[in-house]
């Protein structure tokens, strides 16, 4: 048993590293710096996109796509498109008018390393690049698949997803949201893109909608578990390890899972969500062990 | 002759009005305000998107699509998606860190009427909505058509299009760009989306790439003519009619077509570009008269 656990953590580590290398390679290809006045914009995108982050979302796409034997290059391109959206959202969220953060992934945020205008534009460019990547026939030969990937990502990024959640988050300051509202906020702000990362693997694998119920349940549960772990990290984490400023929610007086549940119940709730996520994978055998390991990892990570 | 000209201007006026009504209707449907903390975000999007602007880009899509008998609802949705990108770019360009404008289309800019965070997010949401609209099967039943529309719009919006042009524009301050660089800047900043508006009509009409040469030439030429007219308006226009602050390029010491060519040569150049644009339509008969009228209109508009 302890041997199996050690193996699992090894597999997860290998997968995390492989995906990080592959996503960096994709970003490097995508973001070649042109010899014209746009160079600074590309440098800013590279600063934000390359060599940082856990790459959790791409990992989820890879782990799901491998269940269905999807071509690795197709998966890499779709996963990078999703990470484009994640990175753009981090750049914009860090802006002075939003969360006003100086540090991200252990480096200065884009508006600190460059300037605000460049940060806004770098985010906008990564946003557009995500859809350019998905619309390209090199990502998938079948336009049905491409159109479905795009529809899913656009929904996850827009006002009914990530951007809507960020808007609720800004409104959270000074409001006293209840548990249902915080849950809804987080389902939009982080949950939608995590769900999309899993769904993209299934879309690439041509799994029909009615065959995705288990994977969707898995994604919904790890999305919430991930956010509760994030709230706990915000209170208990080490800033150097996490690579960004912590304890900001507290300072802003925002309600979180932690303020609403207390530390013990929040931990318990996160563990329960991970168990439920894993339970949603019961239709799969050992080929879904990486997804199971990722579920557990959402709680154990230190950044 | 003068009767024909009067008719043409009447047709153009009717088309401008019809398209404006249709685009407003689409935005109204798309941006129904939800009864949750995202309400403010939707209000901000409505403020920017509804009831303003010339709707030149949607008009170009309609005028091109009607050459090929495209369904009006498909056209309306694609045209609205393109206008989403245009409106988002205006919101972000107006931000304090960018062009710092207080007035747009005769109304306070979004960050003035709301706040900066809401303006950034409203732009981001309209950006995502554009692709959500195009990816939806209600826009076109054929996923090939949807994927091509998306690829074209994402390219036009991204670093090789509008956002890249805006980056060059920010670098223009304090630089002394030559005519070739200003032409390239404007081809990206405004030209790419104008070209995409025409191309979208052809894509919806299932015109193969090799059949679009004339329309592409037309679009490239009116894009530049439009920008020269914009530079002239910036110097000679009436702020109340134009609905935004003018004479900012001068104040920032930026090179424009006007500073590089002088007023007389700039006017002459714009007229030449319109003639060339119209010449590119020679394969079409009277069914392309609206496109011809739009070409002339780029010079005659007062806003």
TrEMBL record, chains A, B:
Necessary cofactors: Mg(2+)
GO terms under biological process: terpenoid biosynthetic process
GO CC term, one of those recorded: cytoplasm
Keyword NAD: no
Any one GO molecular function term: prenyltransferase activity
One Pfam family, short name: polyprenyl_synt
Keywords: Isoprene biosynthesis, Magnesium, Metal-binding, Transferase
InterPro entries: Isoprenoid_synthase_dom_sf, Polyprenyl_synt, Polyprenyl_synt_CS, Prenyl_diphosphate_synthase
CDD domains, alphabetized: Trans_IPPS_HT
NCBIfam families in the record: FPPsyn
Protein family according to the UniProt entry: Belongs to the FPP/GGPP synthase family.
Protein name (database record): Farnesyl-diphosphate synthase
């Amino acid at each position: 048993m302890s041997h199996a656990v050690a193996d699992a953590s090894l597999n997860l580590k290998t997968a995390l590293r492989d995906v990080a290398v592959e996503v960096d390679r994709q970003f490097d290809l995508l973001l070649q710096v042109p010899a014209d006045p746009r160079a600074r914009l590309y440098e800013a995108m590279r600063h934000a996109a390359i060599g940082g982050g856990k790459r959790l979302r791409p990992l989820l796409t890879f782990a799901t796509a491998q269940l269905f034997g999807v071509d690795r290059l197709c998966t890499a391109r779709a996963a990078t498109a999703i990470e484009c959206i994640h990175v753009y959202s981090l750049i914009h969220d860090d802006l002075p008018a939003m969360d006003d953060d100086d540090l991200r992934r252990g480096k200065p945020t884009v508006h600190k390393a460059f300037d605000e205008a460049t940060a806004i534009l770098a985010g906008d460019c990564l946003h557009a690049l995500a859809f350019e990547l998905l619309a390209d026939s090199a990502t998938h030969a079948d336009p049905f698949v491409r159109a479905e990937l795009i529809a899913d990502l656009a929904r996850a990024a827009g006002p009914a997803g990530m951007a809507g959640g960020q808007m609720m988050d800004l409104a959270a300051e000074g409001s006293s949201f209840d548990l249902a509202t915080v849950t809804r906020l987080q389902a939009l702000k982080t949950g939608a893109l995590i769900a999309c990362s899993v769904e993209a693997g299934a879309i690439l694998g041509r799994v029909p909608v009615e065959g995705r119920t288990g994977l969707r349940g898995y994604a919904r549960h790890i999305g919430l578990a991930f956010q509760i772990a994030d709230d706990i990290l915000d209170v208990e984490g080490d800033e150097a390890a996490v690579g960004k400023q912590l304890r900001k929610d507290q300072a802003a007086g925002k309600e979180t899972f932690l303020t609403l549940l207390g530390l013990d119940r929040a931990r318990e709730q996160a563990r329960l969500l991970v168990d439920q996520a894993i339970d949603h994978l019961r239709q799969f055998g050992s080929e879904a062990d990486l997804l199971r390991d990722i579920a557990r990892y959402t709680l154990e990570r230190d950044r």
